[in-house]
Amino acid sequence: MSADTVSVTGWGRTAPTTARLVRPRSYEEVADAVRACGARGGIARGLGRAYGDAAQNAGGSVLDMTSLDRIRAIDAEAGVVVCDAGVSLHRLMEVLLPLGWFVPVTPGTRYVTVGGAIGADIHGKNHHVSGSFSRHVAALDLLTADGTVRTVRRGEPLFDATAGGMGLTGVILSATVELLPVQTSLMSVDTERATDLDDLMARLTATDHRYRYSVAWIDLLARGAAMGRSVLTRGDHAPLDALPVRARRAPLTFRPGQLPAAPAFVPEGLLGKATVGLFNELWYRKAPRARRGELQKISTFFHPLDGVPHWNRIYGRSGFVQYQFVLGYGKEEALRRIVGRISQRGCPSFLAVLKRFGDGDPGWLSFPMPGWTLALDIPATMPGLGSFLDELDEEVAAADGRIYLAKDSRLRPELLGAMYPRLGQFRALREELDPRGVFTSDLSRRLSL
Prior knowledge:
Layout: E1 2-8, E2 17-23, H1 27-35, E3 42-45, E4 61-64, E5 71-75, E6 80-84, H2 89-96, E7 101-102, H3 114-119, H4 127-130, E8 137-143, E9 149-153, H5 157-162, E10 171-178, E11 180-181, E12 186-194, H6 197-207, E13 213-218, E14 230-237, H7 273-286, E15 290-297, H8 298-302, E16 320-328, H9 332-345, E17 353-357, E18 371-379, H10 385-398, E19 402-403, H11 416-419, H12 423-433, H13 442-447
């Protein structure tokens, strides 16, 4: 086990803090690292794709779990895998797709670990059908603050506290994950344009039930009659008979492509209102008005940004804020107001997506609930960004919505209870399970979790 004192930041690169980065190589070394955390505690970390400060711990320890990356067992008949928490979704796809199985839920990057997927209870384009990642986890092994390794099963209170609990109930060591059967490694994709926000919401409401996966890129710089114009992309795993004859010889091949990495230095302000406005205009206009059944690679459909290593550098050294909220069905007017405010403010976001969520999952701090979720990126250098987002937080809370903790880096703690009604239960369980605060992060200190 090695350890170094390093500067640690989230994917947004906005608030680095210094911690002791420990790299355990076995479950026993994880337990040793937890015992040695000291007064500032420790937090587990995977591949660093949480945008904010959830996997940082100023002055304490951060446990890099990526060396614990064994796939321990695969039941190719039942579609179940048992793996270490440090295994990435990318690795699962490499191993499982040739066997005819796919991960049940994937976010916009496949470079997240299974432990991180559970700790953030990640969601994807299929939440309206499949729910969050933890819905498909039958059991997990959790190292708690007293040094005990507990097997926690779906439906138990500790499972519900851990799913979406941001690593604060203990260190996830391994998990049993239920998979999705597929016939090919290609997607059958429908693409269409929506002229404005109301048109988009009407299309999603009327036809989302026909698709397993659904997402809309939204132009948040468009104003007036075009406010909320979007490109809607939906699809499902292509069946074998949808492939050209030659492609049927190796239908489960998984070969994601990759472009050159983003440069280490990018000038501040590159993604300003003018450049993003031009990109948005071109992106909207090049999209087909309606196209059906296009075959796309899994990597193209789910993870286009993974093809550019270190793409977060394009925002410059100051980084960016990823802001995601959800509002329940019936709160469409609040969604229109918020989109209108973002549009009027001229937030230069080219990575903005709107989706529909289905039924929420039991995780006490799990983010999704039935409703509309909007995620957008904003350069941290935008003038007045902090106060503007504070105002949006107030509007989200007033509409009984919530902010996604895995992307948050600046929410005020007084709003958290209104957004997460089971927060009291989570705090009580943490106090009982970890009275000394062994598991601590910058996020937990900021929000008094």
